[in-house]
Specification:
Elements: H1 54-60, H2 93-103, H3 111-128, E1 132-138, E2 142-149, E3 155-157, H4 163-166, E4 175-177, H5 190-193, E5 198-207, E6 214-224, H6 233-274, H7 281-292, E7 297-302, E8 307-308, E9 317-318, E10 326-328, H8 330-340, E11 355-360, E12 367-373, H9 382-442, H10 467-496, E13 505-509, H11 510-522, E14 531-537, E15 545-549, H12 550-566, E16 571-579, E17 585-592, H13 622-632, E18 635-642, E19 648-655, E20 659-662, H14 666-671, E21 679-681, H15 691-702, E22 706-707, E23 715-719, H16 725-733, E24 739-744, H17 747-756, E25 766-770, H18 775-791, E26 826-828, H19 833-841, E27 850-854, H20 858-871, E28 874-878, H21 881-893, E29 900-903, H22 912-926, E30 932-937, H23 942-951, E31 955-958, H24 963-973
Parallel strand pairs: 14-16, 20-26, 21-22, 21-23, 23-24, 24-25, 27-28, 27-29, 29-30, 30-31
Antiparallel strand pairs: 1-2, 1-6, 2-3, 4-5, 5-6, 7-12, 8-9, 10-11, 11-12, 13-15, 15-20, 16-17, 17-19, 18-19
Helix pairs in contact: 3-6, 6-9, 7-9, 9-10, 9-20, 10-13, 11-12, 12-13, 21-22, 22-23
Length: 977
Amino acid sequence: MVTLQSHGQINGDVRPSVLAPVEPRIKHIIPDRPTEPTVFDANLTSSPIFEFVEKDFERLYPPDRYECGSVKEPIKPVDFSDPYLFPTLTKNELIRLKSLWYYGRYIENDKHLLSCLQDQVDLVDDFMQKDCVILGLLDHDYYRRIVTANVPLAVLPRREATCAHTVLHDGGNIFMIKDTTDDWRFMASPHVEAGLKFYAGTQLRYRIPSTDAEIAFGSLCVANFSPTNPLSHRQQSALIKFADVIVHTIVERTRTMRLSERERLASVLADLGKRAEPATIRDNVLRVVREVFPFATVGFQSQPLGLIKLQNREKSIPYAQFQDNLWEDDSGIQNWIAGHNQTPYASEGNDASVRAIAFRMKFDPSVYLVIETHDMKRIFDEVDSWFVGACALLVCNTMQEELLRQTMEAKTRFLRGISHELRTPIHAILSSCELLVEETRDVPIGSTEDADTNSSTPPLKNSYLSGRALSMLGNIDRSGRELLSTINNLLDYDQFENRANVKVTQLHSFNIIEEEVLRETASAFTTDQGVSLISDNRLPPEVELLYTDFNLIKQCLGQLVRNALKFTKTGTVIFQTTISDNHDTLEYNIVDTGIGIAEADYERIFRPFEKVDMGTGGAGLGLTVAARIADVLGGCVKLISSCPQNGSHFQLQLRNPTLACPKNSYCKRTLVECEMPLTYFMPIDRQLETVHLTYAARNLERMGFRRSEPELSTVVLAEAKCSTDTFQDLLSSIRRNQIIIYICQNLQELRKGEEAMRNEDYSRRFIRCLTPVRRGRLWQVVEDAAKAYRELNLNQRQDDSVVGNALRPCLASPVEEVAPLQPKVVIHNNQPKVARQRRHAATRTFDSLRILIADDNPTNLSILAMYCKKRRHSYVTAVNGREAHEKYLQAAKETDFISLVLMDLDMPVKNGIDSTSDIRASEAELGLQPSMVFMVTGQNADEDKKLSVEAGANGYYVKPLSMKTLDDLIQLHFPKL
């Protein structure tokens, strides 16, 4: 028997929409939900109700209605034997139940939604003015009252529920019975017998998106327990609208909850991605997915034939049957509903899986991530599918990244290994060509070189070569350098193909950056090429340090300079450094007089493997690598201008660089206490006034020098062109109180210039400066000139014709009065470590030079030994790191100390790094003056360079090492006094 009771409630403000981001205060006290059903006739409800039959429905529920809207009672069939009319399943029962299970998943535990629904039901109660209002959902077995007005909550068997008849009708109509006791279909039903007199209900209808299908979650009804007037047409229309509002509230609340769940899952996925490791990613994904779907079975399946095996199912499911990665056993669920709609559903472990999500793993198409459940009421939606797919993608990406990493490592090892093997013969080819050319220039026919006791190589004879032979040597040299450039570009492109990161960022001297770039690029071409490489450093004297990655900026600038040299046959390549007035933009400009670029090709030249002229050598990677390195450094490479046959202007631009000025700067140390007047003279003869002299003079003027008349000048700036009469005239006209700085482009000019001055009383007054004339090198030259001026007392050698008011030391902008730099410029008390090492090394003399050559390759060893023999340098050789250390100790024991070590990196028995470390340890233990150790290797990896420096190496050279570079190295660290 149903009893009436009022539903308790608490007055309060109208609650906001359930979609509000902040959950509202609960307005109503939510009553406890009944757990046991109220059953009136256990015998009748023990069997399932029938499926929907269209013909029976039309006969038992005729569409005819009274004028008031009440349904008309049909004629009772003669074969009707049931006590009252039992409802049937709906015509679209499967899709109706799946929609109900999905959108009703939160209702019974969502207090905020229940409170909102209670508000709406109370409004219906106020408007309809009947005894009670019921909002209920019709499951496969029971009709559950969700919220009510003036009647208790209950769980009713579907067979006995009057509202189960309402759900059978089309949506948008009212199923209204004016007097249930007068309708043969309901007069004997349990609720009518309990006192129900009037009933009016409508569906909670919902249209499936993108379809014409309309289903009913349940019903919204009003009832009376005494005779009453039927609902007016206005009330009927309002009841339908209230039902639609309630459905909208339920659907939108579910969607909001699913969106919230997606956000939570996205956070879970992000956390999982942060900890993704190839070795553990599968286990971690399985653990997380099982936590998200505790009701499901989760696992990876290897199915080469694409047949997904699901639990307790005899047949596997083809992956092709998964629609949007989802599969459902609709027929199985339909059959179960038809035969078990009288009993509550309880999922058991031995039930067959009825739903599954499966994703094929891209890294292995035979593997699938499968989530399956045997719980019919668990509906997978797009959020679940998205999450599982994202997990599968994370596994795939992690494994593919690992495979890619291994592949890239293998590729890198191969490239570096093969490059090392290629550099060795290229080193032999280029060095041999260089030595042969020197032989033909320096050794007359019939003469022989002095035999060297350290070498079994017989002396060369008749070394003059024909012009055709020299041309062939030039071809070999150019081809070798082109091959070397291609190898270097391929390695650099491999390094920066996927945007490498800045590795070692610290303060570096602009002078050292300039020196290393020009040294490495100058060694890649010969002076026979007819190109002058010019350094034009326009930085203020106080700007000496840059906070950057040394190796990256050196690589970037090197690519730009090599590109300019490659396409310039004659003329100049200018390496210019400038900075804006407010120090916010640092620019490196590389300007050449080469073949130029057409405007149509401006953009194409930065693409990988693109070449304007397919006839030119190389792989077309130089500018691509330079642009990518610039991007890593936070800058950019631009083509400022270019014109066919008129050269090109490329620029590396770095925005907002961090600059620094040492407290004891080079400029201050060199010139502040200088006694030498800062005046210079440069010959005006066109045979001597070359581009090198011009830029050297500009650099002197930036340092504070003033150009003056020949008789008033302290410094004479000239180029060592000893073959000209003008140079000989210049030598004869130099005054006894003047310092001569002579510019020479190669070692041969240097030696010939010194030969021309051998019999003169020039001694220390002649100071050599090799091209390209860098600012750092010129500072050293000026410092040596000032020292010679002071020690030789040249101020006491004034000729009668010298005017007494010669300029005294004067900086264009005295260091003490330099305007403060921008905020990113800082003052440092110490010079960079590299600069200190080079200054220390410069104190050695040429007479102390004895070389140790360590290399396991006989060809490389022979080439370097031949170089030492030709330059008349004393040397010893070793074929591994242990022997190198032993030879070093033996020389020290015999007081024939080794001062320069050329050490290979990869050698048997002991490598070059360990050998260098042993040499440094022995020097410290025996109190020996440290030798200069330079790595000469085919390896170009940053890690090898780092380890070499840590072991005590003074420098690192990548093969091939040209003879010119060796000459410059010895000239820099072992000057002749």
